[in-house]
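Researcher: I'm preparing a figure for a lab meeting and need a structural model of a single chain. I don't have an experimental structure, so a prediction will have to do for now. The sequence is pasted below. Please return the structure as C-alpha cells so I can convert it later.
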Amino acid sequence: MHAFVDMIDLRNTAFVDALRLFLQSFRLPGEAQKIDRYMLKFAERYIEGNTQTPFANAGEHACPALGDVVFTIV
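Model: Understood. Here is the structure written out cell by cell.
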C-alpha cells in the first residue's frame, strides 16, 4: 500500500483535487482501521508534495490531523 501511494504524484495539487485523484485510484477497503491507514499515508504524501499548504506548518502532528480530517470527509 505504501509503495502504491508513493507512486501517486500529488505535487502542487489542490487538496480537493489531490484527494479526488487518490480516491479514484483504488477501491477503499470496508474496515475503518484500514481506511484510516490509507488516509494517514495520503496526508503524509500530500504534505511531502505541497510544502506551501497550511498543514505543512503543523509539524509532526500534521499527518494525523490531516488524516483525521480526510477520514471524516470519506
